[in-house]
Amino acid sequence: MNDIPLVSTKNLSVFFGLGRKLFGERQVVRAVENVSLDIPKGSFFGLVGESGSGKTTLGRAILRAAPITGGHIKYNDGEVDYDVATINKKQLKDYRKRSQLIFQDPYAALSPRMTVRDIIAEPLEVMGLTSSRRETDERVREMAAKCRLNLEHLRRFPHAFSGGQRQRISIARALVCKPRFLVADESVAALDVSIQADILNLLKSLTDEMGITFLFISHDLSVVAHVCDYVAVMYLGQIVEEAPTRKLFSRPRHPYTAALLSAIPSLDPDDEQDAIKLEGEIPSPLSPPSGCRFHTRCAHVQARCQSESPQWRKIDDGHFAACHFTDELKL
Amino acid sequence: MDSPLIKIENLTLQFKTDEGLITAVDNVSFELVPGEILGLVGESGSGKSVTAKSLMLLNPGNAVYSPESQITLTIEGNTVDVFNLKSASQLKVVRGGAISMIFQEPMASFAPAITIGDQMVEQLLLHSHMTKKEAVTHSIEMLERVGISDAPTRFKQYAFEFSGGMRQRAMIAMALSTKPKLLIADEPTTALDVTIQAQVIDLMKDLVAEFGMAILFITHDLGVIAQTADRVAVMYLGNIIETGSVRQVIKEPAHPYTQGLLNAIPKLERLDEPLTPVPGDIPSPLDRPPGCVFHTRCSQMIEGKCDTLVPSRTTLKVGHTASCFVAEGSSDGEFEAVA
Question: How many CB atoms are located within 10 Å of the residue B21 CB?
């Protein structure tokens, strides 16, 4: 693995303005605020958090699919070096070839009116990557075979396929233009466990083979634990902890990560779980709590947490967390 | 052992479609006693939701039940044959009276233009002898009971004003306010985050202890089952292929399909082991495999036996049954066929 990150964000913020209330101030949703993140080249990088934590928005912002309010996104694959936040049109077109997205719902992501061949060929045609129909067909067949799709099925329409097969079509479409960077937003959440395992294995072997850097967004911690090299945990628009997967799961250093881990139902019925109870739900990003954003639900809250934002600190090699009491807490 | 609250015997259900009859449920039998939580597990398309809906006769008009199918509900000594219920007033007992249901998608199960409170009161007026005033008080109490703060205000709000977790709580409050004997929970936590899921599971366990009702818990998440259910039934292509106590099924799975499902789950304790998917796809219900329904994907398939003969349900240990020739063979002939 290389030390130079492929994608690196610095103080990245994404705010969405809502309509003005009568006589009120303009309301702003702070979906992502001040996020700095390094995604090492060639890694499988996991991003986890509850719904409403801003993980999807962060993934989209990195792909320039969400408006960026402030901060920088550096992309450097050795050939080109872009700041995605201030990228010009021509560069953006090139960036689109280098970065791709796989969606959550394989039923909604494929047009019902296009054949599988046309779906997979579309990125090649739109981006003008091939010069003849024959070349396109060749690339499509090659990619479809890699994703273990039956080549005889290329003339069929998506309705004829099961959820797992559709997700393989989505993967083929994302990989056909040979991207360097791939964002998968909850790409296995809608699948049954047996198919989920199959898709995860496929993604892992394809990204290894093609040398793709992968940002894997998920709310399922056990899936992330299995496939990712690094994990970042998001809460209410901010990253609260980041570490190599083993370190994060064996010794979480932020109370929120610890609570998330303890809430996963154990497969062993004799395993008496005393899950750390998180009271209530994630607060509204319209008016995030003062100080540490997690203080309203934290079991270890102290007076300082309510007023002062914790610093993003290095705890160990590659292990970072934002909590005032990381060193004192036994998690 | 208590006498069963509900008994399902030889339930076979087919749907009439343009392509012919599709078998959705094939000869399924199980029962629930009061206070018991039975987990019904299986992949999508295995027939678990359709089975649950049969208990309330909620399947669409093209559903055909075989004449051998029988569902009997026993409440305080009175036995009701569910398939004999015809008129709407007779059906009230299985639709919200003695049986209530929680659906997967809490947003889609509340009417968007009627307040949560009015929806709760409406069903109480239908199913109990309460006056409107009593129903309002009771509903607010139930909302408080499931941990919704500021219940009197929430009572007057609409579904869109609730968050996902709160909607699911309100759904549970509504389903429980008529004090049902049996609660059917169809993937109640699938749409929720782990932290909220933990809250909802705790709440459901507390309520079982408090009201002494039985729960039919449908899910594809074996982790959730391990932490909630007393017994488990595993479904595949409309058949129950294995049943037993939670410990038996999860710790000593007998059927190759159950073993495959357990192997496919990512486990935090064993990060080094690769994920092993169950090979192949679930076959289309239009061409159900002959013999054992699972033989097309089974790694331990016995040529000439599994693909032609249908395995019968066999008792492996007390309370633990499986329909599989391989499992039969490995239990050293101690098994006996269940009549």
Answer: 12
